[in-house]
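Protein folds are increasingly written down as discrete tokens. With that in mind, we are printing a sequence and the tokens encoding its fold.
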Amino acid sequence: MSAVELTAAEAARCALRAGLPLAGERHADVAATANHIHAVISTLRDLDFGETLPAAHAAHAAHPVRAAHAAHVVEREVADASL
């Protein structure tokens, strides 16, 4: 996890500011959950997806009728990106 983690008191303040007051016994659990989500997102941001297509392109290309069209779209995007 990051060096600076959300504390239970900060979680309670953030929730209250968002209009979601928390019961006192939930502050620590909410802070732990938020810190875990932050750690997961940080890990995902560090991944190098390289030439991986977005899921929408992959699902579109998986359909046999659309596969040729998807390949054309990708080729066009690559050509446009190289301009």
User: Anything to note?
Assistant: The first helix runs from residue 8 to 17. The radius of gyration is 21 Å.
